Amino acid sequence: MTQPDIDAGAELDPVHPMKCPATARRAGGLTTAEVAERVARGEVNDVPVRSSRSTAEIVRGNVFTRFNAIIGVLWAIMLVVAPIQDSLFGFVIIANTGIGIIQEMRAKKTLDGLAVIGEAKPTVRRDGQAVEVSTSEIVLGDVIELGPGDKIVVDGEAVEAEGLEVDESLLTGEADPVLKKPGDKMMSGAFVVAGGGAFTATKVGREAYAAQLAEEASRFTLVHSELRSGISTILKYVTWMMIPTALGLVISQLVVKDNNFKDSIARTVGGIVPMIPEGLVLLTSVAFAIGVIRLGRKQCLVQELPAIEGLARVDVVCLDKTGTLTEGGMDVTELRPLNGSDEAYVRKVLGALGESDPRPNASLQAIIDAYPDSEVWRCTESLPFSSARKYSGAAFSEGDGENSTWLLGAPDVLLETGDPALAEIDALNEQGLRVLLLARASRDLDDPAVASDAKATALVVLEQRLRPDAADTLRYFDEQNVKAKVISGDNAVSVGAVAGKLGLHGAADTVDARRLPTDQGEMADVLDSNSVFGRVTPQQKRDMVAALQSRGHTVAMTGDGVNDVLALKDADIGVSMGSGSEATRAVAQIVLLNNSFATLPSVVAEGRRVIGNITRVATLFLTKTVYSVLLAVLVVCFQVEYPFLPRHLTLLSTFTIGIPAFFLALAPNKERAKPHFVRRVMRYAIPSGVIAAVATFVMYMIARAYYTGPGDLDAETSVTTLTLFLVSMWVLAIIARPYTWWRIALVVAMGVAFLLVLAVPWLQNFFALKLVGAVMPWTAVGIAVLASALLELVWRRVTLRYPD
């Protein structure tokens, strides 16, 4: 028998009583020698349960990219035909790729360490003893014990099934639990919702297909997020833009202008390289990886990397009360006998009920602590708790010839409407107390109507321990415009009282979920206008998540009980407590190993930092891509030499994009994540790139008309580089807002660094930058000022027109 976890269902469920654990027949397990033989034969569950990519995958993912291949070819060409200064972009790519590998390896180490801490250990029978082992240590033929909330980790066949109900919805899509009997197949990936038993492993390792699916589903991943899919979309379009533009540039520089071959090659490569936003993917990976490391230090296991991003986009968080707002432990504060019952006898009954359950939850553990079993009552049959029933039961032989059957569960489910005791119970619930009803049944446990004639015997009053950090966390969500919805299977009045103590808005207007409409639209209306819901069934939790999503909400669901699994699975982001059932940890994207609800704001903040900062740096990178493509098109159309060598654009990219983007990508950022990443980036990057390209090309054409004679191209390149640098710096200055001391220092430092290149003779020679005369340099400054003013105007107009 399993004590009711009142965060559960309400509709009646088929009754499946079982023998009590003390009287049940136990299947034998393997001996140490038999285990050793199977290990030697390779009959072991060797499927690696990884939370991160392998080292080889990390190296391959960072090195063998489309753009690295393009840049690698261009770099090899430049090493042959041009000075080393024009090959600096290749060394920058090597450095960037190395940084990406190192950061992701650090994230992998953090994730793998946390995964070991959070890994559930199945109980197997070996040498006649029940021992906990790692999932990877299970061998063929092991007898594995099961209880409520346990995940089935390998395929097998049931050998004991005492009221054993298994939810296979994650595999089959069928939501109704399946009653298992000895001989029935057990599928890895399913989980136990009621009862207990054991099964023999018949397929382990890679032979268990369902286990492979579960492994694939739980792997660390860098895909399936709006951010990364958006960047992939951008890169796809960049590639298509780049190919014809690069071909036109090659033909223009090599054929039409008939320049020196090596110089033409250098200027052609100089036009192609800046089209590639090579650092964008790198910085996204680095930002995510550092986010994982930061959260890992707070004992937060991110099982799927985009969950960091997803939680930052959440605007509704559904909270399960027990284990989330309250701590797992409880205390019995009062025992109230009903209908003239003898208190001493009631204590004996409660003690026997506690003794009958081998896996007590928090409620029953509090009863066991308060009323230890001192009588030799023999449990003859027990009824496991079901999320839909909301009660459990047991039958006893009391040792003096008397037999009795007892039920323990939710009072408003076991009592008839209008029972006088309900008023007393409501008064207790209003104080935030949990109340269980002990009732004596007159029917057998296998009777579907066993609860209908039960006689109320006593009320067990339990006090729940509020999490000390829950109020602050709810306040944080309120400040961040994230709506909190408390969704609990407990009594609605009690849930409202707990939420009220924590200062949740709307706690006084608690909704009893038994009166919720079944229509999704009507349910969504009720959910939008209320915050606290009690007596919610597991299926209703799932329906409520779907109703909120139907209104365009991004929904996070927290929980720790097996009754939360379906809702966790369907929510946009599932968050499980580390002490929760193995099933909830398996389907959740984020596991709070320290069981602290207060960690959630850190995850939200980390996601916002990643998304907000990547949006900033993406605008920088794509502005460069736009102006590079447009400059190449203008050069081809006007049939002139490309104004830059690779060294010039490497210098510009380093000071206006590379170094600043690295710092900006890792900076604090509390802006709420907004949708439509690609649209939001491009609406700024395209006009910025166009203005920068036009200003630069105008300056180039003016300089071509002004400078004549030997060295004219070098002079033209220098003032054109100055123009593009100044305009790019203004783009950086806009993106760095709102200003802080370090952001101002960053922008100023980049400007000073460029001035040093212009002022120091050997740097002038190295980068082939020397301003000639005063007219053209000041003209470049004037054009850059006009372009910057236009940039300000365009950015403000775009912001006003698209405020989101």
Radius of gyration: 34 Å
Q: Give the low-pLDDT segments.
A: 1-13, 214-224
**Spatial gap, N to C terminus:** 54 Å
**How helix-rich are the residues, as a percent range?**
40-55%
- Strand content is 15-25%
Q: What class would the helix/strand composition place it in? A: alpha/beta
| Average pLDDT figure | 80
How large is the count of helical segments? 27
Could you describe the largest sheet, including whether it forms a barrel?
Answer: 8 strands, mixed
Shape: elongated
Major sheet: arrangement of strands: 8-21-20-19-9-16-18-17
SS elements, strand count: 21
Keywords: Membrane, Translocase, Transmembrane, Transmembrane helix
Protein name: Magnesium-transporting ATPase
Domain P-type ATPase A: 122-216
Membrane topology: Multi-pass membrane protein
Notable characteristics:
804 residues; alpha/beta; seven-stranded antiparallel beta sheet; 21 strands; disordered N terminus
Topology:
Blueprint: H1 32-40, H2 55-63, H3 66-81, H4 88-118, E1 123-126, E2 129-132, E3 143-146, E4 155-167, H5 169-172, E5 178-179, E6 185-186, E7 191-203, H6 209-218, H7 226-256, H8 261-272, H9 278-296, E8 300-302, H10 306-313, E9 316-319, E10 326-337, H11 343-356, H12 362-370, E11 378-383, E12 391-397, E13 403-409, H13 411-414, H14 420-429, E14 434-441, E15 455-466, H15 470-479, E16 483-487, H16 492-501, E17 511-512, H17 520-529, E18 532-534, H18 538-550, E19 555-559, H19 565-570, E20 573-577, H20 582-587, E21 590-592, H21 600-638, H22 646-665, H23 677-706, H24 712-735, H25 741-759, H26 761-767, H27 775-801
Parallel strand pairs: 9-16, 9-19, 16-18, 17-18, 19-20, 20-21
Antiparallel strand pairs: 1-2, 1-3, 3-7, 4-5, 4-6, 4-7, 8-21, 10-15, 11-12, 12-13, 13-14, 14-15
Helix pairs in contact: 2-4, 3-8, 4-9, 7-8, 7-21, 8-22, 9-21, 9-22, 10-21, 11-12, 17-18, 21-22, 21-23, 21-24, 22-24, 22-25, 23-24, 23-27, 24-27, 25-26
